[in-house]
User: What shape does this take?
Amino acid sequence: MHYSGIVVVARALRVGDCQRELEALPGVEVHYCQPETGRLVVVQETESAEEQELGLRAIQALPDVEAAALVEHRIDMGIDREDNDVDSPS
Assistant: This one.
């Protein structure tokens, strides 16, 4: 799984509409909204890096989005870290 942290700036006086547009996108969740500045923090979850890029472009293209920037991208390979810990006794 690919996880992206995205900061979104909504158009003036359109924060509520922007939040609803974002939450309607697949794999997107709004984690923080600051109405007075128009800033929202979004996490996007997808299966591939290509889907991440397409998702970011979809966010940037929303009518109530002034700007959107990727600030973090993580990949979860599904490895159980506890079972694969090098320092663990055998």
Observations:
- Residues 2-75 form a domain with the Alpha-Beta Plaits fold (CATH 3.30.70.920).
- The chain is about 25% helix and 40% strand.
